[in-house]
Structures are given as structure tokens and as C-alpha cells.
Amino acid sequence: MYLNCHSYYSLRFGTFSEIDLLELAQQNQVKCLALTDINNTSACLNFIRKAKDYQIKPIIGIDFRNNHQPLYVGLAKNNEGYKELNDFLAYHLHKKKSFPNIAPDFKNAFIIYPFKQILSSQKINFASNEFIGICSKDLTKLTFSRYKKLRKKLIVLQPVTFRNKKDFNAHRLLRSIDNNILLSRLSDDQQACFSEQMIPEDEIIKQFSEFNFIIENTIKVLNQCHIEFDFSKNKPPLNQKTYTGNIQDDYKLLKKLCKQGLSYRYPTADQKVLARLKKELSLISKMNFIPYFLINWRIINYAQSKGYYYVGRGSGANSIVAYLLRITDVDPIELDLYFERFINSHRTSPPDFDIDFSWKDRQDITRFIFKEFNHVALLGAYVTFHYKGAVREIGKVFGLPKFEIDKLSEGDYNYNSLDHIHKLVIIYSRLIQGIPNYISIHASGILVSEKPLHYYSATDLPPKGFPTVQFDMIIAEDLGLYKYDILGQRGLAKIKDAIRIIQYNQPQKANFDIHDINRFKKDDKINSLIRDAKCLACFYVESPAMRMLLSKLKTDNYLGLVAASSIIRPGVAKSGMMREYILREHDKERRKNSHPIMLDLMSDTHGIMVYQEDVIKVAHFFAKLTLDEADVLRRGMSGKFRSREEFKQVKNKFINNCRTEGYKEHLISEIWNQVASFAGYAFPKGHSASYAVESYQSLFLKAYFPIEYLVATLNNGGGFYRPEVYLHEAKLFGAKIIPPCINTSQYEHILQDKTIFLGFMILRNLDHKTIESILTDRNKNGNYSSLDNFINRVPIGIEQISILIKIGAFEFTKKNKHELLWQAYFKMNNTDYSNKNQPLLFTQKRKEYTLPKLTASSLEIAFEQIESFGFPLSGYYQILASDIQNKNRANQLKQYLNKNIDIYGYLIAMKSTRTSNGKRMAFGTFLDQFGDIFDTVLFPKVQEKYKLKYKGVYRIYGKVVEEFGFLSIEIIKILKQDYIPDPRYAETPITTNI
Is 60 exceeded by the pLDDT of residue 851? Predict the structure, then answer.
């Protein structure tokens, strides 16, 4: 009898999940009900998937509303009807159009108009599929209404939105958040009635006892609705079934492409290569996975035609076919990669390729995919309310001031000392935590379907302009739709841009092949950078944690870097295996601590699980799970899948099998904890190898073209560190830094020999429109000759020109910036020059003013740069309020081993973490006054006392310690140093002039 039920995917309206709805129905002996979320279909597929577990017949539809005012409910009679509803919803979502008051003519869907809506619209004529929905509170009005005569058109429409008062309170909070108003201002028409609750069906029948025909009509409608999707384990995938339109032609094309790839990848292919290829082709064909390879090949083929850089990674790198098709650049023969991690005869899901493109190229790649294939959409994702966001939103709903909300959201409070309102904010925020806030886009997933995607979901049209389904990756896989992962990253853009800069700055040295990884692997200069952890700006190996790991391992080769790329992942570190790996790397005897089976399975990583394949190996060979079960275990280690029943069953079987094998309980527990703690975070070995390839490419550029590579890094938004760190690094390689100039600067930074001309992009408050105007005019009419000439030619306001003057962009005029500012204010005469649409036909004559002699100090310039760039080009040490008391530096740490050192450092990176007992500690990376890097650790007592938080210069006192050659300082005391007062606002004259 329930044809209008809402889950929390009725965004900022509903309060519980589709699973909670099924449980509620079961409690109330309801055997059939419809999920009809408001303008949304996110929960429909999972609702159908899980309904059979509750012995409930599922019906799905959509509650169509404008501004949350009910119009009509659409119920799908069948799968075609569901598509019709999705087509209709998607059209209006894409066009941002309101829904019409009267529904269109659906051939396979019922339309139910709420009684209140019918009374308002006075609708009289009803199509065969249209009905009037009556809820219990409408019965009195119906008795005296002319619509009572339309006996065949009346059905029960009892909305379900709440389970109890708590849900109702959460609903009112969500509605206030959605309307951005105080809770006290929430109007009745923006919230549901408290009566929208579920009661047993026999009570519904009692309430409608005088209107039995309404019950009968409702049952007829329920019986006519039947929708099915295949969620069985061995279901066929729903992705595009062929590439060429014919399975045989697909196979011929794949073989042809592999043959072509052999001559490129293996000019003298041996029997091992050919046997591996034959094995893979046979399995790929048997599993009907050929179109996945060919579609990815087509995407790569397009990228190559456009000169786009890419990296194929993930478990796809385990495939020699992917290597031959140039989807990946990792040789699976060289690394002995485990093909069964990618595809095995037990696997039902298709191959999963992750392909990274430059962040600048990814949009075009996505556009190409939508143009090239027929049924394409981006994969959705849900952004839920988390603690901080929930507290902030509830705080605003209750009218708290921002500073109080900040304290609550940061957890900076003692709950017992809070007043009543503040406690309510904390209590009510818990009601909405975990509830979806809005639908977003999956980071990389694109669906390419055999059938139109509206058979499965409506689609939104986010700002990026590509249709996006309203369900996530987990549901897509349950259904049999498998994503193509197209990602964007800045590392590839840095490599591509660095090569472009080399071509114009050192053309005589630009004849190298950036894809010649084999040569890079043997290059001593590159490998020494890895060994000495001199990897600043290089892809994936520049962070303090990676520098520390490389230093401790003394890694100086490709295979070592592959292992390090996975060891650094949170799971391995969390399990304690990262430290154990380092110990075993240096102590061969310690490797014997591993169980013989573990050491045999993972001999290259000293018996320690490092890669995702290791989980499969351990589960299959150690715990005697099937490969299928082992893959369920691997996949189940992260995300929502961990709570699935099938994962729990596999976990139990893992433990029971180990007991059957006779392993001791402590060993079973140890191995399981290793698996459980890191498997969801670890990389496949092929993925790590792909990352290592890109690392070697960036390391090559850093080794031989450091300044070009650092400029490319800056032009692509930097990396792990702030831009100032990369500029500092460039200086160490002999670069000269020139601030932005209106006659030489471009939008991005440019390099001439060893001189970096900073681009306008570095000016934080300069409008992009202003930059475009300057560059467009300069390209057309040549350099600017003076301030007057610039003002006459460029549409700009006084605020924007002030930014340029203050930063020295008019230094070519040989006039002091104070003088130029005065002239700009006088000459622009309060006129808004930013609205000029065309150059002046006649040059304006402006009165010349005689100004007193004005000067600017170097300290002033430093503070102007802090305001404009976020940092001074000369560094922060020169603006300290107190003199530096010593000359200790990072390269002296060895001399202070196990002794205390007093040293100054500028904080460039910090990582907060917690100890096993929950106490906060921190790691800090600093630049000393001479420009060298050193690392520190603040244990809980020190962190609690000093709370290392913000960038700045610190005086540090601590003990120098060493572990496997990696030096760091265990801080005992740390004090942030003050800067001098800003001289631009000083009362006394500045004497240090430039």
C-alpha cells in the first residue's frame, strides 16, 4: 500500500537509507512497496537488489517536485517504464527546467497525483495510467468531494519519510540547511508532515474500510508493476559488447594490434613472451573481455594522435596485451607480474584499466569518449555529511556566530562545559552524519554501456557538462556496469611542459626520448638522486615520508623504487610492515622470521605483503581459498564492500581454513591482521611499476634539466610543497628570479637561459581578465613605454594597477613604486578604466604633478611580495625581528649525532598523526638559513606543549638521531620567531633604501 516512500537520497529531505526502508517495511508486515525518491533514482538499483532478502516485492519510481512542492509520483510498470521516467527526469535536470504541472503521456509508467494537487489544479480528465493518490488524512475531504465518483481512479498514496520523532527532527534540520535559513524560519510548505510514517498494512486497510474500492485499485496497480535487474554472481556485463560490431572482427583486430606491438616492445621476442601472449589472448577471448582492451586502445590511440602524455597503471600493467597495445608502459615479463591479479578464469568482472592523463588534457579525452561511443556517462559519487560539515551546517541553522561554530567543528571544547544550544548542535549533527548531502562525480569513472544508461538511472548534468548517473561504483559493479578509469594528474603535465621549455631554452639538448625508460633505469646520475633522496618536485617520490623511506632503504634501482612506491602506502605502514621491510632489507637473517610459506610466496619482498597480489597469493596458497574467493577478499578490504555478507563469509573461511591447515592461532591472527590492515590501500605491483616509470621520467628531467623541470612544476600548480620551495630549489641550481613585469611576463613563468621570469599567475589578487587584457594588447601593439601608455591601452581599475605597481611590474620605467602609485591615482582621476571596451583614439593629456622624493626599502619589497605571492623571494630569514643566534645548518647534523643541536628552520611541510594510544604527534620538514632541508619529529608531550601548526621560521632545539642513515631531530623545544613589523605601516622612516 506504500507507493510513495523516501530514502535519504531524497537529498536534504529523507533521513534513512533504502535498506532501513526495507527493514521498516518488514517490521510492519509490508510485502510490497515503492521507493520514490524526490527527483532522484540513486537508491533504486540497490533497493531492488536487497528487496529479495526481506521477501518484499520492490517497485521503483520518482516523486516529481518543483521546489519540494509535490506534483505527481511516477511508478515504473516495467524496465521500459523506468527508462521513460529517467528520460523525463534527466531532460529537466539537464535543462534546469521546472517540471510541468501535468505529467506527459507515459506508455509504461503510472502517474499518481496527490489529492491536494488535484484539488488545486481542478484536473478532471485522466488517462488510463493516471490516478489520484489519497492518504489517510485526505479521507474526510474526499467524502465531500466530486472526485469520490471517480472510483476507478482513486488509490492509496501514503507517503513514508520518517520512522520516528528523531527522523522528523533530522528532516527539519536538513530542510533548513537546504534553504540556508534558521530552523525557526522553516515554513510548513518546505517540510513534510509528521504523519508521513509507515504503519502495518492491516491498519491502512482499517483506515480505508469505508473505501474498499481504493484498496482494490491500489492492489491492481501494485500487481501490474514488475521490474527486474540481474544481480547474480555470474551475470553478463552490461558494458558495450563489441568494438567493431562483431565479436570475430574484434578478435582479429586485437591479434593484429598485438602483432604490431611485438615489433615495438620486443624486437626479438623469445618463446616466453610469445607463450605469455598466447595465454593471455586465449583467456581474454574466452572471458569476452576483448572490447575492454580495444576501447582502451582507441582512447590511447586518440591521445597519441594529439600528443597527449598518459600512464596506464593499476592491475592492467600485469598484462602483456596491454603492454603491446601501449595502454601501459610496464613490461610484465621483466617484473614477473602476476597476470591472474588482472584476469583469471574465476573472475566475473572485466579488466580494470586506470589511465592517467595530464590534467590539461583530461577534459578533451573525456569529450572524445562521449563523442566516440554511443551510451556514455560519468559515474556518480555521494558526498555525505561528516562531523565538521555537519556541525557547521547545524551551527548555522541554530544561528551561532562563526567563531563558536569554528571551535565546535574543530573539536576544541569540553562537552560538559557547553551550554544547552551548543550541546544540541553536537547532538543533532550526529543525526545527519553519514547522510548524503549531494551527488558528485566519481574521481575517474566513465561508463560505456551497450544500452542507454537511462535504463539504469536518471542522469544529472554537472558543471563539467557530461551526463552523470545517479549511482556509485559499488552499485554499478553489482549491476554489471564496469567503469573505465580516466584520471587527471599534474605530474604528466610537468613532464610534457618541461620538454617544451627545454625545446625553446636548450634546443641543442632536446633530442632525447622521454619514453626510453630502459636507459633511465641504468643511469647512475638518476639512481643517485633516488639513493640520496634528492627528489624534490619528482612524481611520487618528493614527500618527506618518501625521502625518509628511500634514504633508509638506500634504494638506487628501478625494482627497489617499485617496492618503495607500494611500501609507502598507508596500509603497509599501519600494519608495521614498512619498518619490518626496512629491517629485513638490511638484515638477511631477520628474513627467516617469516613463515616459510610467506617467504616462498614473497621472496622478492622478504616475506612481507607489499602489493595487492600478495593478498591473493596469501589467501590462495596460505589459507587455501579459491582465486575467486581471494579476489573477493582483496576487493573487500576497502569501502562499502567490507560490510557485505560475501566478504564476511570469505573472512570466516580464511580463518577456518588456516585452522584446518594446522596453523597456530597467533600466526593466523598475525597474518590476518597484516591482510586486513593494508590490503585496501596497497597497490597492485603493476600499479607501483607504472608510478615508478613516471618517477624515472621526472627524475631524468630533474637530473639533466633541473631549472626547466622546476619551472614546469611551478606552471602546473607545484607538487607536494608550496611554490616558494620550488623557486628556492631553482636558485640552488643557479636560477635568477625576476618578479612579474608588464613587458616580459606571460601568464605562466618563462625561462631564458637560467633566468626565470615570473608569470602573472603568481599574483594572487590579479584578475584573470586583467591578465588577458594586458597580454592581448601587448601581443597586438607591442611593449608598453610608460605608465601613461599602459593606462591608455589597457582596461584596468586602480586596484588592479596598484597590484602591478607595488610588485614592481613597472620597474622598467626607472621610477620608484610610490611615485608610480601617486601618478596612477592622480592620472586615473577616480575614473573606472576597467570598463574601457576599446583603445582611446586620442591620447589623453594629463597634468604632470611634482612629487617629493620617495623611496622604498628592500624590507618593504619583501612584505609586498608576501602580500602578492604569499612569500618573499629573498626568504623569511631577512625579516626576522631578532638576530639569528647561531650558524648551525642541516649538513652538520652528522656531527651532532646523539647530541643536542640548536638550529633555525623554515617550516615547509608538516604531517600530524596519532600514536597507537590516540595522542597527537607531528613530523616537520624545514629549510635551514642556508637553504638545506632537514626533518624533525615532535613526540606527543612536545607537540602538546608547542603545537607546531603554521609556516614560519622556528628556532629548534633537539636531539639528532639516525636510523639506517636517515638523520632527523627529535625536538625538545621549538619557538616560532617573530617577524619585524610591516615597514609599509611603520611610524618611523625607512632608512635602508633601494
Answer: no
